[in-house]
Each structure stands twice: as C-alpha cells, then as structure tokens.
Design brief:
There is one protein chain. The chain is of the alpha/beta class and about 500 residues long. The chain is built from 15 helices and 19 strands. The protein has a five-stranded parallel beta sheet with strand order 2-1-3-6-7, with helices on both faces. A five-stranded antiparallel beta sheet has the order 9-8-12-11-10, sandwiched between helices. The C terminus is likely disordered. It is about 50% helix and about 20% strand. Helix 10 packs antiparallel against helix 11. Helix 1 links the parallel strand 1 and strand 2. About 25% of the residues are buried. The structure holds adenosine-5'-diphosphate (ADP). The site of adenosine-5'-diphosphate has 20 residues, from helix 13 and helix 15. Adenosine-5'-diphosphate (ADP) binds next to helix 13 and helix 15.
C-alpha cells in the first residue's frame, strides 16, 4: 500500500483541531502540534506533505510562523486556519506565498477538497522543479564536456608549438610550459610548473630578460646565446589577468645571414675607402691646377660634400663592422661623467643654435666603468646628439647618470617628436629610420653602432617613447667590482 501523505496540523487543542484531524485522517496520515516547539520538532523529524497552522498559534502570529517555515521549506504547501477571513489577513496570506486558508463554516468535504487541491498544486510545482533541475544539469554536463574537449584541443596546440613557450602568473611562477621549452632548457614540465621562474630557468640571458623592469607598451626581448653557438630571440609579453608569456624562437640562421651580410658590407666599404680618398685628394688639387669660374667652384664644392657624406657613411659601416666582429678589446677605467662633459662641449654649437635647455643629473662619486673610452664617447655623442637633433627649437633634454646595483644607468630624455610604437623595435637595426622624422638627415646607423658598443661592454639598452611627448633612451652598463679609485679630473 502506498504511503499516505503526512498532514501536520498546528492548532491549539480545540473542537476545530479535532474536526480537522478527523476529517483528514480518513485520507491522510496526520500529526498534531499544539505548540511551536512541537511544531519545529515534527518539521525536523518527519517530512510533512502539507502544514496547516492557526492564525494565532501558541500565542504567536500564524503569518509570522508561516514566513519562518517557508524560509526553511520554500516548497512546502501551507494553509492558514482563521476564525474570520478578514481582507487584510487574506492579503498577507497571498503576499507571503501561502497556498490558501480555511475558515468556518467548515464541512468535512470542503476541508479535504482544499487540502487535496493544495497538495496537487504542490506536486505539480515539484514535478516541474525536478524536470527543470534535470534539464539544467544535463545542459551543464554537456557544457563541461565541450569545455573539456576545448581544453584538450588547446593543450594539443600548445604542446605542438615549435617555438618555446612558458606561461607565468602575476608573481612570475610557472603556470604552463611546452615540450619545446623543456627540450631547449632541459626542464621537466612536472618539476617546473608551480615554481618561481627564476628557480627553474638559470640561463644568464633569460635571467637578465626576466629581471628587466616592466614598461608599458614596450616589448621586453633579448637574444639568448647557447654554448653550442645557437642563438634564440626571447620575448616577454604581458597577458592581461594571467601574467606573462615567455616565448623564444631560434634565430641562428638569421644571425648567420646577418653576419655574412655585415662581412660583405665591411669588405665593400673597405674597398671603397681608398678610391674615395683619391677622389677627395684630386678635388682638392683641382683648384691648384688653375683658376676656376664660380660655377665650377660651386660644383666642386658639391662633389666634395657628397664624397664627405659617403666617406662618413663608410666610416660608420667599418666602425660597426669592427665592433660587431669583437675587435674592440681596449678596456680602461673610465668615468662616464667626464666623457659626458666632452660630448656636451662638442654639441654646444647645436644646443645654442636651437636654444635647447639641457639639464644633467649625476650621482656623486659615480663608479668607474671598465670600458673603451673612445667607444663610450661615441655612445653618448650619438644618443645625446639624437636628442638634440630631433628636438624642436627650445626643446628640453635631460641626462642622468646614476649608479644602481653595480650598474651605471644612463638616461637621456627629450620632449621631441617621439618614436612610433611600430618603429621602436627596429630603430637599433642598421639603416632603419623612424617614419616620423623625414625632415632630419641621417643614415640610420647611429643607434646600431651604439647598441653594438653597449653589448660589447655587456650592457643593455632600450627606449621608451610616446609620439608627440618625447623619448627616453636607457643604457645600463655593468660596474666591475672593486675598481681602483680614480682621481676625478
Ligand atoms: P639617424 O638619426 O641617422 O636616423 P639613428 O640610428 O641614430 O639614425 O636613429 C635611428 C632612428 O631612431 C632615427 O631615424 C629616428 O627615427 C629615431 N630616433 C633616434 N633618437 C631619437 C630621438 N631622440 N627622438 C626621436 N626619434 C629618435
């Protein structure tokens, strides 16, 4: 026999409670609670199918009791018994979502009917709820299956990438690493994941890249040299809300091509220098050979200017070639602030002509560098020279030399035209000129030479710039420990 629904009657003992119990017990199981304590206990211990509560029960407001119970059992059908169906009571009953009410005169059939209808209504809601829960659960399961398939697909793609990839979280801990990265650096993914990146990667060039200060909108990248001669290009790219992607691809072939190209340029430049020297020599002799008219003198002047221009270009190329070839081995203890003074002296003419305001900020007792003073002079001449060349009249240039963590940091800032973001990664390449400075003459070799010199001194350089605002060039050069104290000039 199927189990009968349990009707819980919460009415104080009276003829009404007896009538209710009698009327309902023919069709249902019934339980009587005569105070709030026994009502709560029965609610805890059994699962009534319907609750019938008096308008006042155990000295408390039945509506309030209904609100409390519905808070705990929102789907429980609920009837209120009242002596008199006053309109405000009926309004409160519907406001709190009670199923209905019973009021005298009461006939047995009517009591059973009302209870029966409330139960049917509750069963319909219960069935609908169960169907909805089932539908939502199966759609969630389907979605979970799709995202699992998606995850596997992404994992396969990530693991098949030929370049090395490592994903770091915002605290620089390893989140993901692909097999190419593991192979290149001899790592095991299981050991690497969940550890600080600097505990996992010890290759010095990579460590230097990871320690570069983050700068908005500026790519952080480095060449990574391996003992077997291979060269990689590594980049750090921010990933919003995740952290960083460290990627590296092999550029050994590109470097080799670059070396061959440089060698060719070097040879050609070298071979061109002697004939050019003769051209210059003979143009100087022409005037001595006999009188020239004004036109001839003007043409001769133009030839001389052009040949000077080609000669200085060739000198730059030869210079670059010898720095790149590692021929520059001269090292002395050098005070960069002294060199800066010579640079500023040389540029005085241009500074005055353009009314540029130059400010310098130099840390007292700047440590000496172990460097080639001639090359460092070239570095400062170029970078400070560019700041002045590209600044407009009455521009402002500030130069700072400071010492930090056994490094000397040179910063040259101007409020000139700035460098477009798309050019920033290329301005250190040979012959590359920015797209916004066509009105200034130049060969595009200066910064390539500077970068080669800085790197030959184990230093790093980079630029931060915003079009229309200006540029800051940074050069970081290492200080060797315990240099002898040089007397300052
Ligand atoms: P050049 O000055 O002969 O063009 P460089 O190698 O010195 O060559 O500089 C390369 C490019 O970098 C320049 O053409 C210019 O676009 C950009 N650049 C360098 N310094 C500055 C600066 N201070 N302000 C704006 N652009 C600069």
């Amino acid at each position: 026999m199927p189990k009968l629904d349990l009707i819980l009657i919460a009415l104080e003992a009276s003829t009404t409670s007896k009538l209710m119990e009698r009327a309902l017990s023919a069709h249902y199981q019934t339980a009587l609670a005569t105070d709030v304590k026994s009502l709560n206990r029965t609610l805890q211990e059994s699962t009534p199918a319907l609750l019938l509560v008096g308008e006042t029960f155990d000295g408390q407001d039945g509506i309030k009791i209904a609100e409390d119970v519905l808070e705990r059992f929102p789907t429980l059908p609920f009837l209120i018994y009242t002596d008199k169906a006053k309109p405000e009571l009926i309004r409160s009953i519907f406001r709190i979502g009670v199923s209905g009410f019973l009021a005298p005169p009461l006939k047995t059939d009517e009591i059973v009917d009302i209870v029966e209808n409330s139960l049917k209504h509750a069963h319909r809601i219960g069935d609908w709820l169960r169907r909805e829960v089932k539908r939502t659960t199966s759609s969630l399961k389907k979605r979970a299956q799709i995202s699992e398939a998606e995850r596997t697909r992404l994992e396969t793609i990530f693991n098949s990438i030929h370049d090395s990839v490592m994903i770091l979280d915002e605290d620089n801990w390893v989140v993901l690493v692909n097999p190419a990265m593991c192979l290149t650096f001899g790592l095991s993914a299981e050991d690497a994941i969940g550890r600080p990146v600097l505990d996992v990667l010890t290759q010095p060039d990579l460590v230097a890249l990871l320690k570069l200060p983050p700068v908005q909108n500026t790519l952080r990248y480095h060449e990574i040299s391996f003992p077997d001669g291979r060269v990689g290009s590594a980049q750090l790219t921010p990933i919003p809300e995740i952290g960083l992607a460290l990627t590296m691809f092999d550029i050994t072939d590109l470097k080799e091509m670059d070396r061959i190209r440089s060698e060719l340029v070097h040879t050609v430049s070298h071979d061109l220098r002697s004939p050019l020297t003769s051209v210059i020599g003979y143009t100087e002799l022409i005037e001595r050979a006999g009188p020239l008219n004004d036109n001839q003198r003007e043409f001769l002047k133009r030839i001389q200017e052009s040949v000077q221009h080609i000669t200085s270009l060739i000198n730059d190329l030869l210079e670059l070639g010898s720095v790149e070839a590692g021929l520059d081995t001269r090292r002395e203890y050098v005070q960069l602030d002294v060199i800066l003074n010579y640079t500023l002296e040389m540029l005085q003419g241009q500074i005055k002509a353009k009314h540029i305001k130059v400010q310098t900020q130099i840390t007292p007792a700047l440590p000496a560098l172990r460097a080639n003073p001639v090359r460092l002079r070239q570095v400062l001449d170029n970078v400070v020279g560019n700041a002045i060349k590209y600044s407009s009249d009455q521009g402002e240039v500030s130069i700072s030399l400071r010492a930090e963590d056994s490094q000397v940091i040179v910063q040259v800032t101007d409020n000139g035209p700035g460098i477009p973001v798309k050019d920033q990664a290329h301005i250190f390449d040979k012959f590359y000129r920015g797209s916004n400075i066509s009105s200034h003459a130049g060969s595009g070799l200066g910064l390539a030479i500077v970068k080669s010199i800085v790197e030959a001194h184990q230093g790093r350089m980079w630029v931060e710039s915003m079009v229309g605002r200006g540029s800051s060039f940074f050069i970081v050069l290492p200080v060797l420990t315990d240099p002898p104290q040089l007397a300052k000039k």
